[in-house]
Each structure stands twice: as structure tokens, then as C-alpha cells.
Amino acid sequence: MKIYTKRGDDGTTGLFGAERVRKDSIRVSAYGDVDELNALLGLTRCEAGDSALGRILERIQSELFTLGAQLATPSPEDAPKHVPVITEAHVVALEDEIDRLDAELQPLRSFILPSGTRLASMLHVARTVCRRAERSVVTLASSDPVPPNTLRYINRLSDHLFTLARAANHRAGVEETKWVPNRA
Length: 184
Known about the structure:
Layout: E1 12-14, E2 20-22, H1 26-48, H2 52-71, H3 88-102, H4 118-141, H5 150-172
Antiparallel strand pairs: 1-2
Helix pairs in contact: 1-2, 1-4, 3-5, 4-5
């Protein structure tokens, strides 16, 4: 099987279920942003190594692949086979992990700047890419149905990535940089 098909040379791509759409469609943008986040988390995992945080990121990458597959399947009943789904359990797992990680951390009393270790900084970048993916999914949801739990998952994931960044700094013994308004 070749990696290229040439079918997209006309500016279209195939969705799961055989429908073809323009590559600049809202749906393609949404799952493309999720794919970009997934790739960034792969790079971030290189920094995390085989740590507990690295294993968490690997699981999230798999979940993002599921999310992307859902977004690339506008009509699950027309798909040639079952497409896995993000469930309420995935959202709850993120919430539980946020709570568990947050228990290690000092309570936030001010805004913090995205900084610290290289791993934490990469997680902060991933958080911002996640927010962009969320905006794309919200735009898609305004015109087409999106699978249940999609918006909840991606919204919770950005909170999770923020907490992971804080945990990475904490575990490395690096203090967070507090935002000082009107600093000259």
C-alpha cells in the first residue's frame, strides 16, 4: 500500500464513511488541530521519557486519536466499521487525574507564567494548542453535530495539561514564575 493516493490532489479529503470534503472544511480543521496536539504531545513525551507523566501523555495520545477518528466520522452509521468513542469515563479519568496531581501542588494564589522546565514549558504550549483545537471543535459543533463528550473532553484536557505542567515543575523542584502585573 502506498502512502500517497493522489485523490487529494484536487483539494479534497475522504472522511470515514467515504464522503469527500474540501481540506479547508471546518471538520477537517477540527480534527487537524486535534492531530497537531497529538503530534506535539508525542514530542513532549520525548522530554518526559518513561516517567509517570510520560505514560499519562501516551494514554492521552491514544485518546486523542480516538477523538480525531470521531471527528473524521460525520455519520457513524455510514462508517465501514465501528469507530471508537470518547466516553464519560474518559472525562472523569481526566478529572480524577487533575485532582490527584493538584493534591501534590501548592494552591494557586496568582496567575503563573508558562515557564519552568523544558517539559513544563512544552506542556504549556500543548495546553494552548489544545485550546485552539477546542475552538475548532466548538466552531464545528455550531454547524454539525459532534459526538457526545467531545467538547467536555477537550475542555478538560487543557486543564489537565496545565496541571501536568505544574506537576512537572514541582517534581523537578522548579518554582513557578508568578505573573507580576505592570512589571516594567
